[in-house]
C-alpha cells in the first residue's frame, strides 16, 4: 500500500482582530523550545504570517487524519505562546500587507517577482504519495492531469481577498497562478522528458531552483513521491484526510493504467487551465468541467465521476466506505469557501469569520 504524507500551510493571525501577524519566527522558536533540540514538524514559509507543517508518511488514513489534527493543535499552542492564533484559511479575509521572510533566497524572489511575491500570502495543501520510480511517477502525472481540478474544487477555501469577496471560491488559486511555472502541464511521456522540461525551465534563469517548479503535480525533489499541489489548505482536518485519500486513489489508478499501457488523455493545457479556472470560480457550488468530456457538468456529478474513476483503488486500500461518506458530507455541508460565506451572512463581520475559523481549525466542525 502506498504511503501518504501531507504538508499544510496555516495563517498566523491576531487572536483579537483576526488580522495576519508576521510571527512565524517566534512560533518556530516556541516549537524548538518544546522539542528541546529535537526535530519538529514546523517550518517557515515565504511570508512571516505563515506556518507550515508536514506529517510522517502513513498508510492508514485514520492515522493520517489524527496526525493532522495533532499538528494543528501543536501549532495553535506554539502560536498562543507567541501571541498569535493559527487558522486554516487559504487567504486572509481581512486586509494584509507583505511581510516576506528574511533570507537570501526570499530576497532574490522579492527582487525577481516584485508585486507577485509581495502578494503571495496564500496557504495550500500538498499531498505526497509514494511511487516506485520516476518512470512510474511521470506515468502517474500524465494520467492524473484532468482530475486535479476536481481536487481543487473539493478543497476551495479562499473566497475573500483584502477585505472583499473575490467572486471565486479559491482566489488563492488565482493569486498562485501568477508564478511563471504554476498550473497544469502537458503530457511528458517519460521521466527523461520530465527532467528535461525542468532543466530547461531552470536554464531560462527565471526560477532560482527546482523548488520553484510549481506544477499542479510534480515529482518531489526530496522524497520518492508524486507531490500533488493543486489544493487550498482545507478548513477542516477531516477534509484534508479525505483529500489525501482521494489523491492516493488517483495515484493508484493512474499507476495501474500506466503499467497496463493505457494512454493518458491528451487534453491540451489550455483546456486544463479552463477547468482549473472553473474549479477555482465555483468550487462545489456550481458547474465544473468534466475531466473526461471537458464539458460543463454539475459539481456533484463530477465528484461522483471521480469516485467512480478511483473506486477500485479505494476498495483495494480499504478506503471506499470512508471516502463515500466523506464526499457525501462535504457535498451536503460545504467546504471552507461555503462555510466562510455562510459565516459572513450570519455575522456580517469578516473578523467574526476569522474567529469562527480559528475555533474550527483547532476543534473541528
TrEMBL record:
Superkingdom per UniProt? Bacteria
GO MF annotations, alphabetized: ligase activity
Keyword tags: ATP-binding, Ligase, Nucleotide-binding
Q: Which Gene3D superfamilies match?
A: 3.30.590.20
Q: Known catalysed reaction(s)?
A: L-cysteine + L-glutamate + ATP = gamma-L-glutamyl-L-cysteine + ADP + phosphate + H(+)
Instruction: Quote any Pfam family the record assigns.
Output: GCS2
The EC number(s) this enzyme carries: 6.3.2.2
| Function in brief | ATP-dependent carboxylate-amine ligase which exhibits weak glutamate--cysteine ligase activity.
**Record's family?**
Belongs to the glutamate--cysteine ligase type 2 family. YbdK subfamily.
Query: Which protein are we looking at?
Result: Putative glutamate--cysteine ligase 2
Q: Which organism is it from?
A: Streptomyces lavendulocolor
Q: What is the lineage of its organism?
A: Bacteria, Bacillati, Actinomycetota, Actinomycetes, Kitasatosporales
